[in-house]
């Protein structure tokens, strides 16, 4: 089976002609499905973009949402509308809302949005303040002193769902593919060939998901876990362990890419 992976396409920045040639490029690979690791558009547009994409590629679109996908709205409202769209169009598969999917014998696909959860680096001392804190209703309405707790809570919720999904994998699982938006480790948080410092890590790493992945790998060292993520818009590979690898994808606003074509045996 063959899958095309893309991350952070930010379709709201993509001119129509560029979008059409990108879709044609995907079709030329004849994939069995598309993987998107978040930042598809913004909250008031993400459903429109997903529907348009599914109709154009006409293969399953497996995706998670990124922070930009919630802009101008609340997290719950966005997820509700996205889930409703997946009920209308079976080609759309929102992995955060799904149990593990067996792609081929023993190879499972899992996804969770994740969040920059302020658990890695030094949030209190960091001067970095993402637009998220103004653009997403759940964060913009919060008193500043509660922001860190809310971010940690969002990361924890993603991690707990991921942990349940991984625990539900059957005994014949030999490989797990995890799609998530945020790099789950500081070492996977690439920017121009370097990894995040204490200022950037709180908003660019989902430490709680990293904790779940590390503990799964320790309990099941023979099962290969490959994580695909984005958010930093810069690429890199971090090998956590022999059988736990994180691939972070690159992106440029206005010019969506095919990050990789992945073949599964
Ligand atoms: Fe992005
Ligand atoms: Fe992002």
TrEMBL record:
Molecular functions per Gene Ontology: metal ion binding; UDP-2,3-diacylglucosamine hydrolase activity
User: What InterPro entries does the annotation carry?
Assistant: Calcineurin-like_PHP, Metallo-depent_PP-like, Metallophosphoesterase_sf
For this record, an example GO cellular component is:
membrane
Q: Which residues form the signal peptide?
A: none
PANTHER family per UniProt: PHOSPHODIESTERASE YAEI (PTHR31302:SF31), TRANSMEMBRANE PROTEIN WITH METALLOPHOSPHOESTERASE DOMAIN-RELATED (PTHR31302)
- Which segments cross the bilayer? none
Q: Which organism is it from?
A: Rubripirellula tenax
Q: What is this protein called?
A: Calcineurin-like phosphoesterase
Q: Which Pfam families match?
A: Metallophos
Keyword terms: Hydrolase, Metal-binding
Q: Which GO biological-process labels does this protein carry?
A: lipid A biosynthetic process
Highest taxon listed in the record's lineage: Bacteria
Please list the residue ranges annotated as the Calcineurin-like phosphoesterase domain. 1-234
């Amino acid at each position: 089976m063959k899958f095309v992976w893309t991350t952070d396409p930010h379709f709201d920045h993509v001119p129509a002609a560029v979008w059409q040639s990108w879709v044609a490029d995907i079709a030329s690979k004849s994939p069995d499905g598309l993987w998107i690791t978040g930042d598809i558009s913004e909250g008031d547009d993400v459903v429109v973009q997903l529907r348009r994409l599914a109709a154009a590629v006409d293969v399953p679109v497996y995706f998670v949402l990124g922070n930009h996908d919630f802009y101008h709205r609340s997290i719950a409202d966005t997820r509700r509308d996205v889930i409703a769209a997946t009920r209308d169009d079976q080609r759309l598969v929102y992995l955060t809302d799904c149990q593990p999917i067996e792609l081929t014998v023993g190879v499972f696909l899992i996804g969770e949005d994740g969040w920059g959860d302020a658990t890695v680096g030094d949030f209190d001392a960091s001067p970095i303040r993402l637009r998220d804190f103004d653009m997403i209703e759940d964060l913009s309405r919060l008193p500043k002193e509660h922001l860190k707790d809310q971010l940690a809570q969002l990361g924890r919720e993603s991690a707990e769902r991921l942990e349940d999904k991984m625990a539900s994998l059957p005994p014949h699982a030999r490989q797990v593919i995890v799609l998530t938006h945020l790099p789950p480790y500081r070492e996977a948080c690439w920017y121009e060939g370097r990894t995040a410092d204490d200022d950037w890590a709180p908003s660019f790493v989902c430490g709680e998901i990293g904790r779940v992945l590390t503990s799964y790998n320790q309990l099941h060292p023979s099962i290969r876990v490959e994580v695909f993520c984005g958010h930093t818009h810069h690429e890199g590979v971090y090998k956590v362990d022999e059988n736990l690898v994180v691939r972070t994808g690159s992106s440029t606003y206005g010019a969506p890419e095919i990050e990789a074509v992945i073949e599964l045996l």
